[in-house]
Amino acid sequence: MTLGHRDYLIFIGSGLLSNMKLYSSLKSGDTGVIITNDVVSLLYLETVYIGLSKSGVVVDKLVLPDGEEYKTLTVAERVISFLLQKKYDRDLVLIALGGGVIGDLTGFVASIYHRGVRFIQIPTTLLSQVDASIGGKTAVNHALGKNMIGRYHQPNSVVVDFNCLNTLPRREFSSGLAEVIKYAILFDRDFFVWLEDHLKDLFLLKSECLMYCIKRCCELKGNIVEMDECENSSRMLLNLGHTYAHAIEVFLCYKGWLHGEAVSAGIMMAIRFALRVGLFNASDAERVKMLFVRANLPIYGPMEMSPEDYYLCMLRDKKNRLGQLRLVLPIEIGKAVIYDNVSSDVLKSSILI
């Protein structure tokens, strides 16, 4: 990732967790704290902990509960209290070992502890490997809005070991595919065609396919972040489907639906809106729908949500300006725009079709 003096490397491959040469932000004598959750800790914490210790890093660990509902200020304060009680100073390096929740939470704490300390991303889910760990967005959730409390704070390195996907539940893998498909819809029609042809191979965890898929997503996101790090213009496109998705997650109190599931339903709602206003064509819409279905992802939101429920949540979306709701809409597979003239009637009708 090329961001001036904040450049960092993204390592992608198999068997990387135990390759301490890749943790380029750490050297012998450094102090690091691994932050993970109670699911990932049983699988990978020992490997990373022992490896860092053998490399001369003074390493500690903190295990948090697993789940989006724990990405809160309360849990962030718990992490900060742990660090303060241990008297860690600004030379500390935080190491996020887990999925998007752990990465976002750890990065947020790293951005504010001693006004900013270094951190390393070790994403262990497909969603975090292709999206959440890249680009420096850090945040915690609020009952009234997802990721409403956060900062931009770039990691010092990202280590993507796709062997971690061997232990990822199939539903979580599908959730990650929602973000993969999102990148193809936004920026790369050829990649979309590749996904149509290789989806089965991805589910079979074929190494060459995983390598290409993860690398391509990181390239696509990296290009956007390098142009617009703080989401003033083009980076907003990465929110395709997320305005609807965040409404789902807030309405459900961050329980029941995985983030990628909400995103896939949200993208289909955005496509239905785009169809209504004449920006997207029906044949491409059918191809996107079929790819989501093949990826075992929902194309409609929760039955218990009404159009009004969505609308009220979406009025707090971060892309809105001067009280006007804005959406990211695809205009063809491989290209999207930010759409300002959002009619509440068309918006609501796109939800239940």
Written description of the protein model:
The chain is an alpha/beta fold. It is built from twelve helices and ten strands. The protein has helices spanning 40-54, 73-85, 100-112, 126-132, 170-187, 189-203, 207-227, 242-251, 259-276, 282-294, 307-314, 344-352, and strands at residues 9-13, 31-37, 58-64, 93-98, 118-123, 137-142, 145-152, 157-161, 327-332, 335-339. The strands form three sheets. A six-stranded parallel beta sheet has the order 1-8-5-4-2-3, with helices on both faces. A two-stranded antiparallel ribbon has the order 6-7. Strands 9-10 form a two-stranded antiparallel ribbon. Helix 2 crosses helix 3 (100-112) and helix 9 runs antiparallel to helix 10.
Describe the SSE topology:
Layout lengths: L8 E5 L17 E7 L2 H15 L3 E7 L8 H13 L7 E6 L1 H13 L5 E6 L2 H7 L4 E6 L2 E8 L4 E5 L8 H18 L1 H15 L3 H21 L14 H10 L7 H18 L5 H13 L12 H8 L12 E6 L2 E5 L4 H9 L1
Parallel strand pairs: 1-8, 2-3, 2-4, 4-5, 5-8
Antiparallel strand pairs: 6-7, 9-10
Helix pairs in contact: 2-3, 4-5, 4-7, 5-6, 5-7, 5-9, 6-7, 8-9, 8-11, 9-10, 9-12, 11-12
Structural class: alpha/beta
Helix content class: 40-55%
Give average pLDDT, whole number.
94
Largest sheet: 6 strands, parallel
